[in-house]
């Protein structure tokens, strides 16, 4: 679909490097558990049923467009659909998060994984994209996303969420050949998956490296960046690509060299330092601390203005530095969005 048909194309114009009247704004995890209507669906349907049911996924994806007023939609899904497509069981356990009952621990486990055509194995995602595009009716663009291979490996090897993913890191250091084989398998199916997402109608792709900051800069160049680079190079000819690594301030220039249309930044790096690293012409995205959305609304408005002043209103996408928290009042999320929309330098 030609992007010129999209009524609010501010986000797309920014990604193309064009001059815009104000920064576009959206929030990571905007289609989520801070919204009362989302919680009603959560009580009614298990997590993966919401992901796998195209009508439910669409309803959740569109909620923040209608209720909060963001400039782009991001498809409601999960990064762990990739392991599921590879025949690695993933359970979503209430109170614990994702659990992989049979984690990858040796080369034979890696060899047993399959890499089927993503459009077939994850057909429900493609149906959700097509249905969402119909319901959005060209109001705003649609982002599709995937986890970085390193982040996916962390879950597949550790078997659950972790503060340090020491088992996953130990797997890489003790069995490097098996780890690299796993990373390449994840990369191959992720590229196929993201190509299928673009073909189904996604206007933009974002890759989340949620656990990249657990690696040293030198180790990042071994275990994450080469695979992020493969993904960016494969998808960039088809759609704009946003690369975001939490805690990965040291990789910003590598993301730029990979051809990222925009680079996500978390709140541990100040806007002026981010700009000093990549320059004024590179599109940056971020970096409001999600916890700061608990501040009084006048404080949110003041902090948003300071953030935009720091990054500069051009070549910039206003966002959080990570996903919105479940305890954020909806009117505070709206205040964040409206503060960006009302920005004047």
Descriptive account of the structure:
48% of the residues lie in helices and 11% in strands. It has 345 residues and is of the alpha/beta class. The chain has a single domain, classed as Alpha-Beta Barrel (TIM Barrel). A seven-stranded parallel beta sheet has the order 1-4-5-6-7-8-9. Strands 2-3 form a two-stranded antiparallel sheet. The longest helix has 25 residues, at 176-200. The two termini are 34 Å apart.
Radius of gyration: 19 Å
The helix-and-strand class reads: alpha/beta
CATH class: Alpha Beta
Q: Strand arrangement, largest sheet? A: 1-4-5-6-7-8-9
Named CATH topology: TIM Barrel
Helix content: 40-55%
Distance between the termini: 34 Å
Beta strand %? 5-15%
């Amino acid at each position: 679909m030609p992007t010129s048909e999209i009524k609010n194309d501010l986000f797309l114009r920014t990604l193309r490097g064009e001059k815009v009247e104000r920064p576009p704004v959206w929030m990571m995890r905007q289609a989520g558990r801070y919204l009362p209507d989302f919680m009603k669906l959560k009580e009614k349907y298990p997590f993966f049923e919401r992901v796998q049911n195209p009508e439910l996924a669409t309803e959740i994806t569109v909620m923040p467009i209608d209720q909060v007023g963001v400039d782009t939609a991001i498809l409601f899904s999960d990064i762990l659909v990739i392991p599921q497509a590879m025949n690695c069981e993933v359970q979503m356990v209430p109170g614990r998060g994702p659990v992989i009952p049979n984690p990858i621990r040796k080369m034979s486990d890696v060899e047993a994984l399959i890499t089927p055509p993503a459009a077939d194995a994850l057909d429900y995602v493609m149906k959700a994209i097509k249905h969402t595009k119909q319901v959005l009716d060209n109001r705003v663009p649609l982002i599709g996303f995937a986890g970085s291979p390193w982040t996916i490996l962390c879950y597949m090897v550790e078997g659950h969420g972790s503060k340090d993913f020491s088992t996953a890191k130990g797997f890489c250091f003790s069995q490097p050949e098996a780890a690299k084989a796993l990373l390449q398998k994840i990369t191959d199916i992720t590229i196929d998956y993201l190509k299928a997402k673009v073909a189904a109608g996604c206007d933009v792709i974002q890759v989340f490296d949620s656990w990249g900051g657990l690696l040293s800069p030198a180790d990042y160049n071994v275990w994450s960046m080469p695979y992020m680079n493969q993904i960016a190079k494969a998808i960039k000819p088809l759609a704009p690509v946003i690369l975001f690594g939490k805690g990965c301030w040291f990789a910003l220039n590598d993301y730029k060299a990979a051809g990222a249309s925009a680079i996500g930044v978390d709140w541990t790096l100040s806007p002026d330092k981010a700009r000093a690293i990549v320059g004024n012409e590179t599109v940056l995205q971020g970096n409001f601390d999600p916890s700061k959305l608990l501040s009084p609304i006048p404080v949110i408005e003041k902090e948003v203005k300071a953030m935009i002043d720091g990054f500069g209103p051009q070549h910039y996408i206003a966002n959080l530095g990570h996903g919105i928290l479940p305890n954020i009042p909806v009117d505070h999320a709206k205040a964040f969005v409206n503060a960006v929309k009302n920005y004047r330098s």
